Amino acid sequence: MAEGLLFDTVGKILEVLASQIFHEIGLAYGVQDDISNLRDTVDTIQAVLLDAEDKHSRKDHAVTIWLRRLKDAVYAAEDLLDDFSTEFLRRKLMSGSRVTKEVLLFFSKYNQFAYALEMGRKIKAIRERLESIKNDRQFHLLQQPYERRVENTRRETHSFVHKEDIIGRDGDKNEIIDRLLDSSESEIESVAVIPIVGIGGLGKTAVAQLVYNDEDVKTHFNLRMWVCVSDVFGVTTIVEKMIRSATNRESEKLDLDQLQERLRGEIDGKRYLLVLDDVWNENRDKWLELEALLMNGVSGSKIVVTTRSERVARITSKLPFHALRGLPEDMQLNESYCNKIVSSFKCLRTLNLSNSEIETVPSLIGKLKHLRYFNLSHNADIKSLPDSVSRLLNLQTLDLSCCDDLVELPRDIGKMVSLRHLAIESCLSLTDMPNGLGQLTNLRTLPLFMVGRKTQLSQLNGLNKLRGSLRIENLGEKQNSRLANLEAKEGLQSLVLQWDANKTVIYIDDALLEGLKPHQNLKELTIIRFGGIRLSSWLSSVTNLTMIDISICIKCQYIPELDQLPSLKRLRLFKLSALEYISSSSPPSTTIFPSLEELRIFACPELKGWWRTDGSTTQTAEPPFSHPLQQTMMRTTNTAEPPFSKLKSLTIESIDDLETWPEEMMPNFPSIQNISIELCPKLISLPQRLNKATTLKTVGIYDCPNMAILPEGLQLQSLEIIQCPQLSERCGNNMAVDWPKIAHIPNIRIDNDLIQLGDAIN
């Protein structure tokens, strides 16, 4: 328990006392000395906590009682400091509002003086309480400085739980216990693995704790072990933690071979229960390496794995996983139940009402002034939040994702100055952003920004801590897009710019896009329904881009040079109805697209080729994209590498005049793995050189009614033919004319019938 919750809480208190806000509080109310004295007391408590929690884990009863008393006082101190910081933030916000009698009263000298006296008195009282508990013990504790503690980027969980703190999970607990005590699953796996799967914050760890501490479970298993795995799935670390949990003592530094010997000594001949909490590893080889060390227990031994990922569940077990859902129907959270929560748990830090079918959030929610995390996601019937939500000045995460009917955010959201994460992806009914959003300069997560009647791009100006993904929708209104200041948002990895199709004006859209240049760190860029003629030149200067998707830009005629972007792996051009050439310049003498792995170009009916040859703007003598397609794909360069040397996936779609695929194209695709040909009505055949493509694994041919001939000797793993009647007739079964050409391919699907799977033929 060396990384227990109490130690973390004490650490947070020290951070708060040393923060800028408490520096300001000390100066404003003259309580600097009181704050300094409290910090010294908490610091001395933290120094002995590691040793105390270690003794607690060894069942030292006196230390356990002392820690329980200390915990209550520490939590009271945390609540008190929260009260002070909340009130201070509230008064700062009020000082910026219009002057009212209430504001004047708050900031009168008498009121300030009285509040300062009250604050000093309460800080002294909590310090004296902590000092008393610290000194009231009959046992010695070693002082261990903070630096000795190894930090973990994710939370460290433990096996202890107060049963009364877990609401509405009895059904899940009982179902898992039944499986633990049932011997039939051990007939499938000698040591059965039971995964518990659910989204973050749903209570996977809490359910595992309830199961782990159940009296029937304790009786049934000779040995129980709890290991928090988290981000890094290191077999050596996990085995060390297992031994520590099994023996209640630290193991000396051993290599993996010595550790597995020690572990076998602990589990051999025993029916054990192992909980692996918070597993993220999706590498099957790593799991098999650990699993091999866990098979020495007596039949009936069980492993419980908690994870957010169904893939992890499938990797770790052949058995069905236990899917943790929202609270059951008899615990659905109507307004009355929410009110009960608010009145009963006023110091609540975390509230998860995800997927609970709640329709109305009660105004009382604003009284949970200590709340840090509030999850309302996947509640499709919520239309709005009460204004009182804006009083949650300590709230750091507000998750509203997948609230389909949500039409607006709190209008005073700018007061929520602590907000770091505002999750509003898939809020399909949102049409606008509240005016105060731009004041939330600590915001890290904002997946969606809706430009609307009241919403200017300038609200994004100061939100420079944003990271991850940002989607800007409803672009089209004339405004200074440079004020969005996207170039300063170095944490953004993915950017989607989507125009409103009803607002597009060529010169306005060109100017809007020009001002939305992102930071160089951007990895993925998507542009949808842009109504201008020319995409901005900055696209070719964002050199870290790995993906570009340009879709439904029906007036666009010019795209900047993309073929020299060094990191670009995926390029998708869809429905650029006016585009004739992808590049306006002549072909370069160097390798193009040095990293490109996937190229998709479809629904571009006017496309004639990649480059404008010799500056020419038209090639009317040729059918669209037939000969120019050869130019694009076959053009040689002065380098040793062909132009598309890294391309792995190629889709050719909706090219009405394409009749043949030239043989000379294939040498330019030395890394090709997947080819998809769709909606090419005149295409008759594929190049015979496809049989030389040793890297090619999958070919799919869809809606090509004139396609009749396949090359011989295709070295494929999978072939799919859909809505190609001539091919279907020639290849559809083992009696068909061209069946010998494809009989060696392991997986064949024709018109949704699985003709061949491995060695099995229907």
TrEMBL record:
Q: Where is the Disease resistance R13L4/SHOC-2-like LRR domain?
A: 342-604
Question: Which keywords annotate this record?
Answer: ATP-binding, Nucleotide-binding, Plant defense, Repeat
Occurrences of domain Disease resistance N-terminal (ranges): 10-96
Taxonomy, superkingdom? Eukaryota
Q: Which InterPro entries match?
A: LRR_dom_sf, LRR_R13L4/SHOC2-like, NB-ARC, P-loop_NTPase, RX-like_CC, Rx_N
- The answer, when asked if Coiled coil is one of the entry's keywords, is no
One GO term of the biological process aspect: response to other organism
> Which molecular-function annotations from GO does this UniProt entry contain?
ADP binding; ATP binding
Q: Nucleotide-binding: is it a keyword of this entry?
A: yes
User: Which ranges carry the NB-ARC domain?
Assistant: 171-321
Q: What CDD domains does its record include? A: RX-CC_like
Protein's name in the database: Rx N-terminal domain-containing protein
Q: What's the source species for this entry?
A: Citrus unshiu
